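Support request, please re-run this one:
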Amino acid sequence: MSKRSSRSLSRSPDRSSARARFGLQIVPVLLLVSACATAPAQGQDGRSMVADYVDSRSEMFAETAQQIWDLAEVGYQENESSALLQAHLTEAGFKVEAGVAGMPTAFVAEWGSGSPVIGILAEFDALPGINQARSPEREPVEGKGAGHACGHHMFGTGSTAAGMAVKDWMERTGQVGTIRVYGTPAEEGGAGKVYMVREGLFEDVDAVLHWHPGDVNDASPETSLANKSAKFRFTGISAHAAAAPERGRSALDGVEAMNLMVNMMREHVPQETRIHYVITQGGFAPNVIPDFAEVFYYVRNPESDNVKEIFERVVAAAEGAAQGTGTTMDYEVIHGIYSMVPNDALGRVMDANLRRVGGLHYDAQERQFAEALQRSLPDDAPPLSSAAEIQAYEQKQAGGSTDVGDVSSVVPTAGLSAATWVPGTAAHSWQAVASGGTTIGNKGMMVAAKTLAMTVVDLFLQPRVLTEAKAEYVQRMGEDFVYESLVGDRAPPLDYRR
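Re-run finished. Output below.
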């Protein structure tokens, strides 16, 4: 496949305007109420078949998700987690290609042939620096350096379950088309999907579906923040900090001078901008002037063009800091991702199926766990009964970033959230790790798997939805868009977590 997608795709001519690209409300010309109001009997039968398939194998999928929870492998190191999902898909009859786009843990699993081609995304990386036992109270696991605080163990397994259910339905009914499951590593800062998009792995796909663990059930179309990150590395000269300070040039001074200037920038950037950093290395002893220091930066904004401009200002601050402190500086771009492009045509079908599936209800043991965990949450946490509810369908702006944004920039894409966490739980928290390690997480994952599978069935049986989704995509993106990765031509940063 080509090393870079050169497919001419659309984008709004006014790239400075989030309104042009995303809108402040659902795109009015593509309401699709008729498309989802009454499904044909064939569609109803297909939806029932895939839901039954997921239910009949729920114990197997729950066991797999919890195995991946235990493994808690971070980005580009998810060897066992990826292998578990690949094994399920291979056994189910999928053709699995591993190690795609230069990433050992990435894979594409495919079954069927011809059009339409529907893809489902599957993530499986954990977050470093946070872990938790399957307990409703704070209980770190000694010696464990990572945890599934964003629930990707459920994401990958639930998506795999959906793909397998769809394949079973297609085989039993003779449905024509292609179902693909994309195993996408290193979403947390490694931007694995970016390299898959850049490699052209989505060029022939008609629609892509995904989901994410959360504390609510919601299929609303959602945008996100574009994001570009880099590690800035300063090199100085070591010396005794007391006996010969004049001989030294502190690399840590370079980092701190950069941070000072970037922090002053915050007054002079668009208000939607978010800039974060951590000092990953700053020296080892106070009496030794450090000759190396490193700081890791994220720059976010709803518009990728704004991210590019602000990132260059951050680079300029680093260059000035090096000059002012007598050090040298270089930097490595770690990842760069686009913001999510919502698709109402697909979203309404997803929402209808989420409502068919419904939310989840806690048994007595789950309720006891949830009540105990909620005592660690803010007082305004939603009631536990909200896990059974489906949120209103409306355009939403997310505060985070995801490499799904790059996928949505080249193919119509829709997603949902399922209540795998106790209501009120925030992502990247110990409470999220704990909830995802229980039957509460498993139940939410099954809601997502069934919703995804049922939506794929509808897309196969209702080609007009795909036509309308493509038209909406073109309307949002414009006529001239050609995808260009924000990471340029760099190879995947396979060691970024080491």
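The chain has a mean pLDDT of 92. Residues 18-224+339-477 form a domain with the Aminopeptidase fold (CATH 3.40.630.10).
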